[in-house]
Amino acid sequence: MEKNDHGHGQGWSERQIGVYHRFGGNVKAVMVLLHANTATKAHSRLQQVFSDGQYQQQSSTSPLLLHALILSSYLDNWRPNLQQLGAWCLSKENQFLTVGLKHPSLCFQELQELRDLESRLLLASGILHSSLAVVQGIESCGRSLMTAKSALNPVGSVWGVDATDPTSELRFLGVLGLKCTGYFQSVDLIHRRVNVVIGLLSDGLSQQSQKTANNIADSSFALTQKSVNDSYIVKVVTVITVVYLPMQGVATFFGMNLTGLSDESDKLRFAHNWWLFLATALPLTLVTLGVLWIAWRLEKKRKSKQQVSTTV
C-alpha cells in the first residue's frame, strides 16, 4: 500500500513489488527489485543501508535483513489507509441510520460507491493474506538456515565466515506477521460494516421503490374508479337513449293522428285508438333493450376470454 498524489479517489494505490534474491555462502549475493515507480521508499532505504558500512556488512551476511526492510517500508501504510476507510464507512453508517426515505442521499450513486469500496476491501484482504504468507515463508526460510548453520558449522556455514545471528531479523519478521494479521482482521471488520451499510441503503432503496409502486397503484386505482364511474354514466345515457328513440320513432310515424287540440277548448285531445301507440312503442322498446343487453353480454364474455388468454 502506497500513498499517491493523483488528486482523486482515496489517495492510496496498491503496489506489487517483485523481489528476486539469490544468496549463498560461496556465491555472490544478487537481489533484483521490481517496482512501479522509480523513486520509492524501499529504494531510498536500501540505498541508505548500502551506503552505511556497518549495515552493508550485515546485509551481505544476513539474507533476511533486506526482505524485512522492504516489507516494513510499506506494511505500516495500511494503518492510515484502514483508518480512512473505517472513518468513511462509519460516517455512511451514521448517515443512513438516521436518513429519511425522501432524502436525496438514498440514491444508486451511493450504492455504487459502497460496492466499489467493497471490491477494494476484497482486494486488500487478498493482498494482506499474500503478504502474511510471504512473511511466514521468509521467516520459515530463515529458521531453516539457522538450523543448517547450527548443524553444519557453528562458525562458518551457509551464513558466511562473519555471519550475524538472524534472531533479531526473525523476531522482526514475527512482528510484521502479527501486523499483517491485525490489518487483515481490520479489513474483515470494515468489510462487514460496509455490508451492513449496503444492506441499509438497499433496504432504503427498496422502500422507495415500494412506495413509488404503491403511489402508482393508488393512482391507477383512482383512474380505474373514475373510468368505471364514467362507464356507468355512459350506460345510463345509453339506456335512456334506447328507451327514448323507439318511442320517438313511433310518435313520428303516427304524427298528429293520435293527438290534437279540442275545438271546444284549448286542451289536448287524444284519439280513441291512442293505445296503438303503446302497442307499437313498448314491444319495439323491449326488443331494442334486449338487443342492447345481448351486446353487453357478448362484450363481457369477449373481455373475459382475453384476460384468461393473457394470464396463460
Automatic annotation (TrEMBL):
Its main location: membrane. It is a multi-pass membrane protein. The chain crosses the membrane at residues 232-254, 274-296. The keyword Membrane applies. It holds the Pfam family CorA. It is found in: Membrane. InterPro entries: CorA_TM1_TM2, MgTranspt_CorA/ZnTranspt_ZntB. SUPFAM superfamilies: Magnesium transport protein CorA, transmembrane region. GO terms for cellular component: membrane. Keywords: Membrane, Transmembrane, Transmembrane helix. One of its GO terms (molecular function) is metal ion transmembrane transporter activity. This is Uncharacterized protein. It comes from Extremus antarcticus.
